[in-house]
Specification:
The complex is a heterodimer of chains A (about 700) and B (about 575).
Chain A: H1 12-24, H2 28-31, H3 35-53, H4 63-102, E1 106-110, E2 119-123, E3 132-135, E4 145-149, E5 151-155, H5 157-160, E6 166-169, E7 176-177, E8 182-186, E9 188-192, H6 200-209, H7 217-238, H8 240-251, H9 259-269, H10 272-291, E10 294-296, H11 299-305, E11 310-314, E12 325-331, H12 337-348, H13 354-367, E13 380-382, E14 390-395, E15 398-403, H14 405-414, H15 421-432, E16 435-442, E17 445-453, H16 460-470, E18 473-477, H17 482-492, E19 496-498, H18 503-515, E20 520-524, H19 530-535, E21 538-542, H20 547-552, E22 555-557, H21 564-602, H22 620-644, H23 653-686
Parallel strand pairs in A: 11-18, 11-20, 18-19, 20-21, 21-22
Antiparallel strand pairs in A: 1-2, 1-3, 3-9, 4-7, 4-9, 5-6, 5-8, 10-22, 12-17, 13-14, 14-15, 15-16, 16-17
Chain B: H1 3-31, H2 39-53, H3 63-86, H4 103-114, H5 124-127, H6 130-160, H7 170-196, E1 206-217, E2 224-232, H8 237-246, H9 267-291, H10 295-321, H11 325-330, H12 348-361, H13 376-387, H14 398-417, E3 423-424, E4 427-428, H15 431-455, H16 459-462, H17 469-484, H18 499-528, H19 545-579
Antiparallel strand pairs in B: 1-2, 3-4
The chains are: A alpha+beta (about 700), B mainly alpha (about 575).
């Protein structure tokens, strides 16, 4: 759904709904959560009251001026509301799609987890953790759960947007099923793992809707700073009244500054640009995550992604293609290479693993050894087991084995043979080059080594270089021995690696980095990744992974793409950068607004202060109104930026800061001078004030 | 501006710069408790003091305990100083037989001296007994300076330590500040000052016949009385002047402060007193860098201070030299080569403006010329330096911790702009820090703005204004800005020894000082408890020219946006009127 729901930034359906929402959001109860905008709303109310009052008494200033200021203050609040509604709108549309797939379905509740157990039809929303249900072809899986029996193909497009069905089966890493997905063939017995309202879809809905959106830590800190600035500006503008009362006496002309002018100046000075767009930036950030097909469990996790220092990545499937391929046969001393290839092929004929297939192919392409029918040869296949760590065939009294060096070494010793010294040299050499050596033996005789090479994914090296420029250290995690690991690491361009990794070793590594003050991210899918995922600061679980992994992580990648982390980091950084740049822009704007409003407010008292009117604005009224209008319009103009986010480029902190200061700091000083002048020219051309 | 004047200013800046590193290095040794030049001599004395006062020097304090110690220590100091003034007529060492100081003035002065402000609503030689000067004001000069330094050191420890619950021991930090830094420097400086002719005695005032009699005209009656003799005050001045300059106190022994020959007799004395104003605040930047293990960070803050200070100083000097017709009518002395009204002929324009800039950049507040008589723009420079929040050098300790607060604001905004949770010196700056940072910036600004707002409309407030028009506004503006930022220099021209000003300014000083100290210590405690984040290539460097530029921008913008309205109605309006 998310893929199909990708909409342009501006969609008329969204915009019209946002218009309505922005009016509803004028409620003071809602605005009080945003201190900056609350102040603007209070200013709008006060100026409106002043306008009404002006019909009954002389307020000493132009009625038109008061009503214009009042209107534009209301617009300022409305524009900020509109930005927020726009950001929320897209999430709401997606939530509706999701809700439809959550709608209640009938479920066959089993009295015990057996196919032939008694079933009762219940409504899916009554299912609790620990219940067992039976789902068959054509059924919608009623809730999240774990397959306890059966194999079935499931269409998960409601969650992932991917329409090709996936296999779900009991045990192993493909046992998790999600509520709302459709069984396409066969049947499953599922143990329910989520209570009503806590399912994956429920969490997705609440996230895209922003219903449970809590302010992230940096957002809170920024809010405090903005509130502090608002109070300073409140005092700085309110005290202008007594200052001007004194100055009127001192200069003996002019009039004290009016309430309208004070409110106008206040609203122009307080950081309304960032204050109005702050919540939109946060919502839009979460939205970008959804566009990237990542479900984050909290905004905090998204923000933390921008802070990541260390990234742990599994070698297999992430850095290298899942399968290693045979690239060379290296015979032992005194063995013909063809003999080795022949025996290796025999050992692999029945081996359906990608490695096994690649050996058969290599024997054919390099030495023209044709495939043989293993049954015709009367051979018995010995499959690979984790215990023996070898595979092979027994035929005609020949025992052919291939496997890890130490496993074969042990095998040969048991057969009463001697493991040749030169093989150890070959094995080490192969490993050093980043390949995996597979030793081939027949009986007690070692024939040679097959070189199995990891194929590093295309383009991955560039992505790691990009991460390095972002200041993120990449660490490859692999079960390989250190020699192989080092070679692959060098090939792929990662900064470091953890070889012979066990779940404990991963956990220890993460803790060590965290102990050193670093923030660690990792991706994982297996149940054995769960402890490390739980420990990592940003943990992305693959949607294809187990329930345990998904629960341990704080994000789920629906595409199950381990390099997605790079995008997640970018989104996290973008979120912070957008806030920082708009804050800078907002504050820098104040310089021009002072130059517009102060001379206008004081020129009656000290005519000399008219010299500060460096923009040569037409009249005091038009100057103040221009500043207020600019202040409101800039919010609208910046909505696209707030929703899209400021582009992040991995340049290193110093260069990034320089660029952003130039654009948003310097730009923030210059732009309003131009904007206010243009608006003032329009106002004087219209000749309304 | 004359080349001679610029040369003197240049010489001053060079000598200052040369002294920063050795003194800063020494102070780092002191605060780290490592052996230094004076250990052999002073360590036994330090231990003895701890024994007498029951201080367990190895006991560490949490930030709350530290804060309580700071507040309690200063409260006791204030009460003692108040009582000493109120009872001075009953106590010894009062050869002139001065009466008890009034309640409101005593309150104001007590607050003034514990807060390192040294705002003076009274005239020293006509109000305070020698005992009050020595045991009260002189002692507080040391203690208030040491308090500021101790708070700074506690903040530095917040950056150094990680996963810690304590930030040091206030009693130890204060004792070391006085014993190893303020006292030795003051002793040396006192001797030099005495050699230049600054008085140091306990004798009653001397009366001498005038060589040429004159007449005093009483205002506004116009009644004249012949004057044929002069009273020459004395007292233990040199020892107090040393610490008043070194500890950014600035409270003069005599009413006209360092413009008085017995307080500042020779060009050399003037040069050294000037040097003493900025010496410790500047050197503390190096101490900071040294203690956090990255001197570049200290230099960056110091360079920031210099970059803001020097142009403002030159603007002040320039404004006092330029020929403005409106000023010429005020001051005939423009022919001398500058606006000489309110300036000592001994010092001239260059040294007077240098002093004015230095004393307001640092929260010293001593004066050798009357700022009220400066040209509008020349007077705006000291005012603006006050409005920057006393962080351009600032008070001993307090200047640097104020600068660090602004650095935190900068780091926060800049850190967001590079896409990371902001960090400064390896510590993450989060909501709690921003809350404290906001409070410490917000409260003094609020005090200044509200104070002025009240003073310019109530009768008691406007009654004390000497000059009409925009200049009168500047006088009130200056008084509140000076007090709330704990500078203590006066624009003069405003009669402030009234119950209204004594009370309102007293509270301004009190809030201005402790509304920064408490948040700073809270930040220290919070930072000390955090993990130390090692720097990577994604970390924002905080010692580069770019950071310095952004920091300067934030400092100027925060101050300018707060104070531009009042500056427009004060010095800017006055200046534009004058050049019209």
């Amino acid at each position: 759904m998310t893929r199909k729901a990708k909409k342009g930034l501006f969609d008329w359906g969204l915009i019209s709904r946002a218009f309505v929402d922005s009016v509803i959001k004028l409620s003071p109860l809602y605005q009080i959560r945003k201190p900056v905008m609350f102040v603007v709303e209070v200013g709008s109310v006060l100026t409106t009251m002043l306008f009404v009052y002006s019909f009954f008494a002389d307020i000493g200033e132009s009625q038109l001026f008061v009503v214009m200021v009042s209107l534009w203050l209301w617009f300022t609040v409305l524009f900020a509301n509109f930005a927020e509604s726009m950001a929320e709108g897209r999430g709401k549309a997606q939530a509706e799609t999701l809700r439809s797939s959550r709608s209640d379905v009938k479920a066959r509740l089993l009295s015990s987890p057996q196919r032939d157990a008694k079933t009762t039809m219940v409504v899916s929303s009554t299912l609790k953790k620990g219940d067992h249900v039976l789902v068959e072809t054509g059924d919608v899986i009623p809730s999240d759960g774990e397959v306890v029996e059966g194999v079935a193909s499931v269409n998960e497009s409601a969650i992932t947007g991917e329409s090709a069905p996936v296999i779900r089966e009991s045990g192993g890493d493909r046992s998790a099923v999600t509520g709302g997905t459709l069984v396409v063939s066969d049947w499953l017995i599922v143990r329910i793992t989520a209570n009503p309202g806590e399912t994956f879809i429920d969490r997705m809905i609440s996230m895209v809707e922003g219903a449970k959106r809590q302010k992230t830590p940096n957002e809170i800190a920024l809010d405090i700073l903005l509130a502090g600035l608002t109070i300073v500006f409140l005092l700085a503008t309110v005290t202008i009244v007594p200052f001007s009362i004194f100055s009127v006496k001192a200069s003996s002309h002019g009039a004290p500054v009016s309430v309208t002018v004070v409110i106008a100046l206040l609203v122009c000075l307080i950081p309304t640009t960032i204050g109005g767009l702050l919540s939109s930036i946060g919502i839009a950030g979460m939205d970008r995550m959804i566009q990237a097909n990542v479900i984050a469990m909290s905004g905090r996790a998204v923000e933390a992604a921008g802070d990541i220092d260390v990234l742990l990545l599994d070698k297999t499937g992430t850095i290298t293609l899942g399968n290693r391929q045979a690239t060379e046969f290296i015979p032992a001393k005194g063995v013909d290479v063809r003999t080795l290839a022949d025996v290796a092929q025999l050992a692999s004929l029945a081996d359906e693993t990608p490695e096994g297939r690649s050996i058969v192919i290599l024997a054919k392409t390099d030495y023209g050894i044709r495939e043989r029918d293993i049954h015709a040869l009367g051979a018995r296949f010995i499959p690979f087991s984790a215990h023996t760590r070898m595979s092979g065939v027994d035929m005609d009294g020949r025992e052919i084995r291939k496997g890890a060096t130490d496993a074969v070494q042990e095998y040969v010793r048991q057969q009463g043979g001697v493991f040749p010294i030169d093989i150890i040299g070959i094995v080490e050499e192969v490993a050093r080059q980043g390949a995996t050596p597979l030793v081939v033996a027949e009986g007690k005789r070692v024939l040679g080594v097959i070189r199995l090479k990891d194929i590093v994914k295309g383009g991955i090296k560039e992505r790691f270089a990009e991460l390095r420029r972002m200041g993120i250290k990449t660490i490859m995690i692999t079960g390989d021995n250190p020699l192989t690991a080092a070679a692959v690491a060098a090939d792929a361009g990662v900064d470091d690696f953890l070889a012979e990794a066990t779940p404990e070793a991963k956990l220890k590594l993460i803790r060590e980095y965290q102990g050193g003050g670093r923030l660690v991210a990792m991706t994982g899918d297996g149940t054995n990744d769960a402890p490390a995922l739980a420990q990592a600061d940003v943990a992305v679980a693959m949607n294809s992974g187990t329930q345990a992994a998904k629960e341990a992580g704080n994000m789920v990648d629906l595409d199950s793409n381990p390099t997605k982390l790079i995008e997640i980091v970018e989104i996290g950084k973008q979120l912070l950068i957008t806030r920082g740049t708009l804050t800078t822009f907002s504050i820098a704007n104040d310089v021009a607004k002072y130059f517009a409003i102060l001379p206008a407010a004081f020129v009656g008292i000290y005519p000399e202060l008219g010299m500060l009117n460096i923009m040569r604005l037409a009249t005091p009224y038009s100057a103040i109104l221009s500043a207020v209008i600019f202040n409101a319009l800039i919010i609208v103009l910046l909505i696209p930026l707030a929703l899209r986010g400021v582009k992040y480029r991995p340049l290193g902190a110093e260069a990034l800061l320089r660029n952003n200061i130039l654009v948003y700091g310097l730009g923030g000083i210059v732009v309003p001078f131009i904007g206010i002048k243009v608006i003032d020219m329009i106002i004087s051309a219209l000749n309304i004030l | 501006m004359t080349s001679n004047g610029l040369l003197q200013i240049g010489l001053y800046l060079i000598v200052l710069a040369v002294l920063i590193k050795p003194l800063g290095h020494y102070m780092a040794l002191v605060y780290e408790g490592r052996s230094n030049w004076f250990t052999a001599l002073l360590a036994p004395l330090e231990r003895l003091l701890y024994r007498i006062f029951g201080v367990r020097s190895e006991d560490e304090m949490s930030w709350k305990t530290y804060t309580f110690a700071v507040l309690a220590f200063n409260a006791v100091g204030a009460v003692f100083l108040y009582l000493l003034q109120r009872l001075q007529h009953l106590l010894p060492l009062n050869p002139q037989g001065f009466a008890a100081v009034s309640a409101d003035s005593s309150f104001n002065t007590a607050i003034s001296f514990i807060t390192n402000t040294n705002w003076q609503g009274y005239g020293g030689e006509s109000t305070m007994s020698y005992l009050t000067q020595m045991a009260g004001l002189g002692v507080q000069n040391f203690l208030s300076a040491a308090t500021g330094m101790a708070v700074l050191v506690a903040l530095i420890r917040g950056f150094i330590r990680h996963n810690a619950t304590t930030i040091g021991n206030f009693w130890v930090d204060t004792t070391r500040s006085i014993l190893y830094i303020l006292l030795p420097l003051s002793v040396i400086f006192t001797i030099v000052l005495v050699s230049q002719g600054v008085v140091q005695n306990l004798k009653p005032y001397q009366t001498t016949p005038l060589m040429q009699g004159t007449t005093a005209v009483e205002q506004p009656s116009g009644k004249t009385t012949p004057v044929n003799e002069q009273s020459i005050p004395g007292g233990p001045a040199a020892s107090q002047i040393a610490i008043k300059q070194l500890g950014t106190n600035g409270g003069g022994f005599f009413n006209v402060n360092s413009a008085y020959p017995y307080e500042n007799p020779t060009p050399l004395a003037n040069f050294l007193e000037l040097l003493a104003i900025l010496l410790i605040p500047a050197a503390l930047c190096y101490t900071f860098g040294k203690m956090i293990g990255d001197t570049r960070q200290g230099w960056a803050l110091l360079i920031t201070m210099f970059i803001i200070f020097v142009p403002l100083l030159l603007l002040c000097y320039y404004s006092e030299m330029v020929d403005i017709p409106a000023i010429k009518t005020l001051a005939a002395s423009i022919d001398y080569g500058g606006n000489m009204e309110g300036k000592e002929v001994r010092f001239g324009v260059a040294n007077s403006t240098l002093w004015a800039a230095a004393t307001t950049a640092a929260s010293n507040g001593s004066v050798n010329a009357m700022h009220d008589s400066f040209s509008p723009l020349g007077g705006m420079v000291p005012l603006f330096l006050l409005q920057l929040g006393e962080i351009i050098f600032g008070g001993v300790g307090s200047g640097l911790y104020g600068m660090i607060i602004l650095a935190l604001v900068t780091v926060f905004v800049a850190g967001l702009m590079v896409g990371r949770t902001p960090e400064y010196l390896g510590k993450k700056i989060e909501a709690f820090e921003m809350k404290m940072v906001s409070l410490s910036i917000l409260i003094p600004s609020v005090v200044i703005l509200l104070g002025i707002g009240v003073a310019v409309v109530v009768k008691a407030g406007v009654a004390g204004i000497a000059n009409p028009g925009a200049h009168g506004f500047s006088e009130i503006l200056y008084a509140f800005t000076s007090c709330a930022n704990n500078n203590g220099s006066a624009f003069a021209g405003l009669s402030v020894n009234t119950p209204f000003y004594n009370l309102i300014l007293g509270f301004a000083m009190l809030i201005g000082r402790f509304s920064v100290i408490v948040p700073v210590l809270a930040i220290a405690g919070s930072l000390a408890g955090k993990k130390l984040v090692p720097a990577g290539s994604g970390t924002l460097p905080t010692h580069t020219p770019l950071f310095i530029v952004f920091l300067i921008g934030i400092i100027i913008i925060v101050a300018a946006l707060t104070h531009l309205p009042s500056l427009s109605l004060g010095p800017i309006a006055e200046h534009l009127q004058a050049i019209k």
